[in-house]
Specification:
The protein is mainly β and 145 residues long. The protein is built from 2 helices and 6 strands, in the order ββββαββα. The C terminus is likely disordered.
Length: 145
């Protein structure tokens, strides 16, 4: 097998609060959609901007972070990989689902700068421009703030 590399980095806003569920063994799963702007050039070379809505899934500690601190409208960066799943639909035909599996999540603006106050937050970011990472699945035990 040859060399392969699967890495995705997205910056966008959540279209809704994360949906939380649990696997059969109790692992937390957070699903959310990111609205990510994309520039394009039209036939007249003026171009424009379109928005892609990208399904994102986080597991374990990263899902816990998403559940506790992310909400609709929040600007974040997601680092992860692309995963394509195949399943049989209700009509009996093969269907495919493309998702980003989030490995790290980073705030891209402070809560104060976002103008979003609809989610409870512990205040550590209200008077600072620091950016914090969500804990990855690398054995980190605590949220880094």
């Amino acid at each position: 097998m040859g060399i392969s590399y699967n890495k995705a980095i997205l910056v966008g806003r959540l279209t809704a609060d994360p949906q939380i569920s649990y696997s059969t063994n109790g692992l937390m799963i957070a699903k959310f959609t990111l609205a990510v702007d994309r520039q394009y050039r039209g036939n007249n070379q003026q171009g424009g901007q379109e928005t892609d809505f990208i399904r994102t899934v986080a597991f374990g500690k990263t899902a816990e972070f998403a559940s506790n601190y992310l909400g609709k409208g929040r600007l974040i960066m997601v680092e992860g990989h692309i995963q394509v799943s195949k399943f049989v639909g209700q009509d009996g035909n093969n269907k495919y689902s493309t998702d980003i599996i989030a490995e790290n999540i980073r705030f891209m603006e402070t809560k104060k700068g976002s103008g979003i106050d609809n989610r409870p937050f512990d205040g550590h970011m209200t008077n600072t421009d620091e950016v914090f990472d969500a804990p990855g699945e690398t054995g980190e035990d605590e949220v880094p703030f």
